[in-house]
């Protein structure tokens, strides 16, 4: 396993350094006439997302070294759209959109929801389409997910995003394994394990 760079090995120092770098990048954006986003293969990470939104708020023109990719957009009557992205390939985007459309037949959602593919627009808020595929990380994500309120406003939920990302068969297997871990980590078995019983 690759060791982290010494600058990032201490979590507290890494967090301080990240804040300093974020402040430096915001200062550079404030003083720039335009912003060039270096995004090999169309990839845009979380920090870059924030910087693009900041540049957009300041009205700075934004250019990219590579096309920023594609997005899946869920339009829900009376609500803000939900955008998933970026996807680097059109095929991957089309697959995710098709999987989400199939979920409309079996998952609660706002009536009239439509799903389409669009250009990725980094200045807008997007959900990361990559869902954890490690069962432990997925179990943690389950614990953090907000409970459904019965209105379908939370579509796509975590399981639906997993299907969009991994496909039906793989998603079902990953979800099953994560559910067992979740039950163990959050159920009475976990209490007994921690108590040494």
SSE topology string: HHEHEEEHEHHHH
How far is the N terminus from the C terminus?
34 Å
Calculate Rg over CA atoms.
20 Å
Low-confidence stretches: none
Q: Strand order, biggest sheet?
A: 4-3-5
Q: Helical element count? A: 8
Largest sheet properties: 3 strands, antiparallel
Number of strands: 5
What is the residue-averaged pLDDT? 87
Bulk shape = globular
Strand content: 5-15%
**Helicity, in percent?**
40-55%
Write a short abstract of this structure.
This protein has helices spanning 6-9, 11-31, 46-58, 90-103, 135-144, 158-166, 168-186, 188-194; strands at residues 35-37, 62-64, 70-75, 82-87, 114-119.
Structure write-up:
This protein has 197 residues and is of the alpha+beta class. It has a domain at 13-67. The chain has eight helices and five strands; from the N terminus they run ααβαβββαβαααα. The protein has helices spanning 6-9, 11-31, 46-58, 90-103, 135-144, 158-166, 168-186, 188-194, and strands spanning 35-37, 62-64, 70-75, 82-87, 114-119. The strands form two sheets. A three-stranded antiparallel β-sheet has the order 4-3-5, covered by helices on one side. The chain has a two-stranded parallel sheet with strand order 1-2. Strand 1 (35-37), helix 3 and strand 2 form a beta-alpha-beta unit. Helix 6 (158-166) packs across helix 7. The chain is globular and about 50 Å long. The two termini are 34 Å apart.
């Amino acid at each position: 396993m690759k060791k982290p760079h010494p600058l990032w090995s201490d979590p507290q120092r890494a967090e301080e350094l990240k804040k300093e770098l974020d402040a430096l990048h915001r200062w550079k954006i404030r003083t720039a006439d335009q912003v060039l986003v270096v995004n090999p293969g169309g990839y845009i990470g979380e920090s870059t997302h924030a910087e693009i939104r900041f540049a957009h708020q300041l009205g700075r023109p934004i250019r990219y070294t590579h096309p920023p990719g594609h997005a899946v957009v869920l339009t829900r009557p009376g609500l803000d759209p939900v955008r998933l992205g970026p996807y680097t390939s059109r095929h991957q985007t089309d697959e995710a959109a098709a999987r989400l459309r199939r979920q409309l037949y079996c998952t609660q959602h706002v009536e009239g929801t439509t799903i389409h593919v669009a250009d990725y627009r980094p200045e807008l808020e997007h959900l990361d389409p990559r869902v954890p595929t490690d069962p432990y990380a997925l179990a943690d994500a389950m614990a953090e997910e907000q409970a459904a309120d019965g209105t379908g406003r939370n579509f796509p939920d975590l399981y639906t995003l997993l299907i969009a990302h991994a496909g039906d068969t793989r998603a079902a297997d990953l979800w099953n394994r994560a559910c067992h871990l979740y039950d163990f980590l959050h159920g009475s078995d976990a209490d007994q394990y921690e108590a040494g019983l």
